[in-house]
Design goal:
The complex is a heterodimer. Chain A is mainly α. Helices cover about 55% and strands about 5% of the residues of chain A. In chain A, the strands form two sheets. In chain A, strands 2-3 form a two-stranded antiparallel ribbon. A two-stranded antiparallel ribbon of chain A has the order 4-5. Chain B has one domain: Cytochrome Bc1 Complex, Chain C (Up-down Bundle), CATH 1.20.810. Chain B has nine helices and one strand, in the order ααβααααααα. The chains are: A mainly alpha, B mainly alpha.
Chain lengths: ~325, ~220
């Protein structure tokens, strides 16, 4: 036997249904019109704005600051309010609880009252949640995003912030962003070691005579933070001048790097976006172990271990140049 | 035409289906805001068609993914439009499904007898977000790569299951070749299968139970007294 309130809900629904109009053609007309208008907007955006394609993925570029799609911004922004070990609260626990709440909602909020004013608790809760989500999204749109590698190491993070506060980017640039009065710092981590960088920050003129960089009078820990950040830039390992020659003699007949070489094997330009050095070095020495079908000869015994290392570093340093 | 309909009706009783689907009455007071559900379905169809067109020219390996997306954008006839439609359609999908959910929440339409429609709807919303997350990586450009890096790092922090979950998503300890093929498989096989099943259920509930009527104030002498 149905509870009385449920019977009343059904009765009232049947009454309203009798007073209503048939789905075809009245409701379907409204639906079609709205879909048509929405498609017009989407077509306009697709034609006028389109979908951009950035540079190819580069896992070594830790200066890149990712920005998620707008509908995930609230989550990324929420993370910033829960530093360190509490991050899991914002990232996982709160969203999981919110989803659980939504799933069980119809079993918590029961009974015949449907009007928002008749269920003040759930209405207020909904408004608060919406205001929260929208503000987080807006804050996320305005706040700068940080690369996760920078984000994970507080020293690097502090150095990154100092770099901004000291306006280093007025003269220096990293990955094409900044001024060009002073050297590009995009690969500074590969060019100078910690000791050099530290001495440089204490007195630029001492290590680079004639440098116009001002002496910044930084605290030792500030220098430490800046150096730690700069060390993360351009981490591809140095190779010798013999490496490009090794490549053209041994690999160039079948492989292309940056437009030069043969076509029998795959293009190796920017292979670092999906292979690491250990894999590459091992593949050069015994390709059949990784790919039994390959026609590539193994270079074990042909090249020394040091040559293989040199060659791998060279191949991994190559980057695709886009027009 | 008439005879064909008669012939089919004699065997499949298609006129009954027509009555159940098209002649059913929609309760009085159902306004424009009730079109959000149908609109979600419309955008889903747009995403399916543009997604299939994109898949015809896309290569899910890190070696060729970027090149193939670049090829779609610059060489394929209307390729940039199809990519644009799929991208903006994705944003529209999230927006409209969310608005649909907000409408149902504030109108209390999830209440008796439509509890199951709501529960299924919550899972559809989650799948839509899953489509967005997995699709972002596929062009294999800087934005997609690093946003996915952040996303999987977040998943890693979940208590107990975090590291296993991150490993499952990435297909290993680092984000690489396997991650891309995995995301592609999830995006074009797993999620579509799940969402089609749930959409079918959701629509079945709506047609069977009828769309909820607009909420009415609870009056002592009113219908719910």
């Amino acid at each position: 036997m149905l509870e009385p309130w449920k019977q009343k809900v059904r009765q009232r629904y049947d009454e309203l249904k009798k007073l209503g109009k048939p789905f075809f053609p009245y409701i379907i007309f409204k639906d079609t019109l709205v879909i048509f208008l929405a498609f017009l907007v989407i077509f306009y955006l697709a034609a006028a704005v389109g979908a951009n394609l950035e540079e190819v993925a580069n896992p070594t570029d830790t200066t890149y600051n990712p920005r998620p799609e707008w509908y995930f911004l609230f989550l990324f922004q929420a993370l910033k309010f829960f530093p360190g070990s509490l991050e899991a609260v914002a990232a996982i626990i709160l969203p999981a609880m919110a989803i659980l709440f939504l799933v069980i909602l119809p079993f918590i909020d029961r009974g015949p009252k449907r009007h928002p004013l008749d269920r003040p608790f759930f209405t207020v809760l909904g408004v608060v949640a919406l205001v929260g989500l929208v503000s987080l999204t807006i804050m996320g749109m305005e706040a700068p995003m940080l690369n996760p590698v920078i984000h994970r190491d507080p020293q690097v993070m502090a150095g990154y912030q100092l770099y901004g506060q000291l306006h280093c980017n007025y003269c220096h640039s990293i990955q094409g962003r900044g001024g060009n009065a002073a050297p590009d710092l995009g690969t500074v981590g590969a060019r100078h070691d910690r000791d050099w960088l530290t001495r440089h920050f204490r007195d630029p003129n001492q290590v680079t005579p004639g440098s116009v960089m001002p002496q910044l009078n930084l605290l030792p820990e500030e220098i430490d933070q800046l150096v730690t950040y700069l060390e993360t830039l351009g981490k591809s390992e140095p190779f010798t001048a013999a490496a490009p020659k090794l490549f053209s003699e041994n690999c160039g007949a079948c492989h292309v790097i940056d437009g030069n070489g043969g076509e029998a094997g795959p293009d190796l330009t920017a292979i670092r976006t999906y292979r690491d050095k250990a894999y590459l070095a091992d593949y050069i020495q015994s390709p059949q172990q990784h790919n039994p079908e390959t026609a590539m000869p193994g270079f074990k015994g042909v090249l020394t271990d040091r040559q293989v290392e040199d060659l791998s570093r060279y191949i991994l340093s190559t980057q695709r140049h886009h027009h | 035409m008439r005879t064909l309909v008669d012939w089919l009706d004699e065997r499949l009783q298609i006129r009954e289906i027509k009555v159940a689907l098209f002649d059913r009455k929609i309760p009085k007071g159902v306004g424009w805001i009730y079109t959000l559900g149908s609109l979600s379905l419309g955008i889903f169809l747009l995403q399916s068609v543009t997604g299939i067109l994109l898949a015809m020219n896309y290569s899910p390996s890190p070696q060729f993914a970027y090149e193939s997306v670049s090829y779609i954008t610059h060489q394929v006839t209307l390729g940039n439009i199809v990519r644009g439609l799929h991208k903006w359609g994705a944003s529209a999908m999230v927006l409209i499904v969310t608005l649909h959910m907000i409408r149902v929440y504030f109108m209390g339409s999830y209440k008796y007898p439509r509890e199951l429609s709501w529960v299924v709807g919550v899972f559809i919303w989650l799948i839509v977000m899953g489509f967005g997350f997995t699709g972002y990586l596929l062009p294999w450009d800087q934005k997609g790569y690093w946003a996915t890096m952040v996303g999987t790092t977040i998943a890693e922090q979940a208590p107990l299951v975090g590291p296993a979950l991150a490993k499952l998503l990435r297909g290993g300890d680092t984000l690489g070749t396997v991650t891309l093929t995995r995301f592609y498989a999830i995006h074009v096989l797993v999620l579509p299968a799940l969402v089609l099943t749930l959409i079918a259920l959701h629509l079945f509930f709506v047609v069977r139970q009828g769309i909820s009527a607009p909420p009415e104030r609870d009056k002592p002498d009113g219908p719910h007294a």
